[in-house]
Amino acid sequence: MQNKILQAILANGRVCPAFFHKCPGNIDMKKFAIAVLVVVSLIGGSFPARARDSLQRGTLSFVLENDLFYDLDRHYTSGVRLIWIPREAATPGWAAKLARLVPWFPEQGEIHHGYALGQSMFTPKDITLADPPLQERPYAGWLYGTIGLGVESGRRLDQFALNIGMVGPASQAEESQKFIHEIINSDEPQGWDTQLKNEFGAVVTYQRSWRQFATTTLIGYQLDFTPHLGGALGNVFTYANAGVTMRYGKQLPNDYGPPRIQPGLPGSADFSPLANFGWYIFAGIDGRAVARNIFLDGNTFRDSRSVDKETLVGDLQFGVVLDWPVIRFSYTHVFRSGEYTTQESNDNFGAISISVKL
Asked: Residue 232's beta-bridge partner residues?
């Protein structure tokens, strides 16, 4: 069954996977995906159910977003994030008290908290130029940590997060990109001397999602729709957003889609599978009204490069999730509309996430 699903989704597809900007011949994505599935299957089925229930301490998720899935290297070029969600029984008292202080959080529900570390990097479209044109978005990096709270009440999830970190050379984005490009023998980025200056960044985000707001059955499989709304406030990002995600598959788990790096469609790092193996395909759309994007507007208190941003930005995504009792694997393709007025084309990038219950 699992191989049939992969064959239907990946039929003869070939793509150059993440970080491989110069591939010595394209890699057969079908073989690559099946190899990943085999490894994930072994991990997912390696623990008996009772051992899983007694040993689980939480969920560890890794998210990688990169445009090199499609042989590109521009704009939002890479993002990585590591997320740890302790199980509900491990929720500390301070998290429960803080959740109850947030006025729009529900009074009843399961309280979750979590932590994340992430890094994102942004470049102009031609990284071989030491002095990129001023109409191109500037080089920039964002290294941050996150403390998040979530309250799930029935089929509704409220998520609140505080993100703090550094923009500029302190983000280590230059070193990260050059290190990876040296390993894979790709073009060395030349323009990092023009990047944004160092600036402390703080952003608070809030999302509310309604899982299975509408549900039905189609050709023997489940179909549901999960709308969401939210926003961000800070010197790095300030925006309001809304959208909806559709899931279609077998034994839909109690999740809100795979995790993503913000700004983007919300998901959930934790998940509760309903069977030994489940799968679903998904598609979603998210629209943002953007008041502040430091990676386009430039530094807040210092002179830096900048471009005129678009006020309205949209994401369209689709992908597949494979779900076992202790592991979830997802792949997402994202189309993003132009983020600044002189941008010549829309962006697209891929995202892989792996979540493991430990």
From this structure: 205, 239
Crossing angle between the packed helical segments 29-44 and 2-10, to the nearest 10 degrees: 150
User: pLDDT tens across 122-143, in order?
Assistant: 999 999 999 999 999 999 999 9
For residue 175, the surrounding DSSP H or E stretch is helix 173-183
Answer for the pair 142, 236: CB distance below 8 angstroms, yes or no.
Answer: yes
Round to whole Å and give the CA distance between 179 and 26: 22
Q: Which residue has the tokens 């089925």?
A: 45
Entry pTM: 0.83
Residue 181: count of CB within 10 angstroms of its CB = 18
Domain containing 324 equals 2-357
> How many domains does the chain fold into?
1
**Rounded CA gap, 106 and 123, in Å?**
41
Instruction: Show the tokens assigned to 205.
Output: 């985000």
- CA dist., res. 226 & res. 245, Å (int): 5
Sign of CA pseudo-dihedral 59, 161, 102, 245: negative
Cα separation, 339 vs 310, whole angstroms: 5
Report the relative pairing of strands 221-234 and 214-218 from DSSP bridges: antiparallel
CB 66 within 8 A of CB 331: no
Measure the CA–CA gap between 197 and 1, rounded to whole angstroms: 52
Compute the distance between CA of residue 302 and CA of residue 307 in angstroms, rounded to an integer: 15
pLDDT (tens digit per residue) in 313-345: 999 999 999 988 889 999 999 999 999 999 988
Q: What is the CATH number for 350?
A: 2.40.128.140
Whether 209 has a pLDDT exceeding 90, the answer reads yes
